[in-house]
């Protein structure tokens, strides 16, 4: 091959590589835009679903010219609010503003209660777990302790003294063993094992 032909070939190969890289970037940009659009679609679908749920709950397709706020306030006055379960005049187990617990709760209510309870566990973690423990935890390690607080309460988590001390000492193996050497682990073996393994493998900063 002549020198000139070789130079032309190399030039063409470089141009082809540049073109391919450009095409690759365009494809990546298109994919990113597509993912963004998918998220936007999901967001609007969620809004539509929420609106539809509210529409169904407030009348099932029948438009009522009532004052929901006025009705709600009057019911609150008549029922009163109880934050602990009680028996109503008919003997039904009830809570809140006359909600019959024997009828169960909706999925939406269950999700709201879950968020409330997680927030309480997070607050206990932030305020009550010693700094020497918190600073040695990875995000996953923090999640493990918060889940334990969520499940059994902060006072019982304080009962895991050797586990907390092991975290403070950056000793994941001891933390793992102490978590499993507990009444909790006997009562909830699968959950305890999963959380203990997370704490041992990636929950403590080394």
Written description of the protein model:
It is a single chain. The protein has three domains: 1-64; 68-103, no CATH class; 107-203, Orthogonal Bundle (Lysozyme), CATH 1.10.530.40. Strand 2 and strand 3 form a beta hairpin. Helix 3 packs across helix 5 (139-152), helix 5 (139-152) runs antiparallel to helix 10 and helix 8 runs antiparallel to helix 10 (189-203). It has helices at 3-57, 68-79, 107-128, 131-134, 139-152, 154-158, 161-168, 172-180, 183-187, 189-203, and strands at residues 82-87, 93-96, 99-100. It has a three-stranded antiparallel beta sheet, with no helix packed on it. The model is unreliable at 55-60 (pLDDT under 50). It starts with a helix and ends with a helix. It is mainly α and 206 residues long. Helix content is 72%, strand content 6%.
How would you summarize the topology of this molecule?
Layout: H1 3-57, H2 68-79, E1 82-87, E2 93-96, E3 99-100, H3 107-128, H4 131-134, H5 139-152, H6 154-158, H7 161-168, H8 172-180, H9 183-187, H10 189-203
Antiparallel strand pairs: 1-2, 2-3
Helix pairs in contact: 3-5, 5-10, 7-8, 8-10
């Amino acid at each position: 091959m002549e020198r000139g032909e070789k130079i032309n070939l190399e030039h063409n190969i470089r141009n082809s590589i540049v073109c391919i890289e450009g095409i690759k970037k365009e494809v990546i940009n298109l994919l990113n835009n597509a993912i963004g659009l998918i998220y936007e679609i999901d967001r609007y679908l969620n809004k539509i679903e929420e609106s539809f749920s509210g529409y169904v709950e407030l009348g099932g397709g029948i438009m009522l010219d009532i004052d929901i706020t006025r009705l709600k306030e009057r019911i609150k006055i008549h029922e009163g609010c109880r934050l602990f379960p009680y028996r109503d005049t008919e003997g039904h187990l009830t809570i809140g503003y006359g909600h019959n617990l024997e009828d169960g709760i909706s999925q939406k209510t269950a999700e709201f209660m879950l968020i409330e309870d997680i927030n309480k566990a997070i607050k206990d973690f932030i305020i009550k777990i010693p700094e020497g423990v918190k600073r040695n935890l990875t995000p996953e390690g923090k999640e493990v302790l918060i889940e334990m607080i969520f499940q059994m309460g902060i006072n019982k988590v304080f009962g895991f003294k050797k586990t907390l001390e092991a975290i403070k000492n950056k000793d994941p193996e001891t933390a793992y063993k102490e978590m499993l050497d507990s009444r909790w682990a006997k009562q909830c073996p699968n959950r305890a094992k999963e959380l203990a393994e997370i704490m041992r493998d990636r929950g403590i900063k080394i």
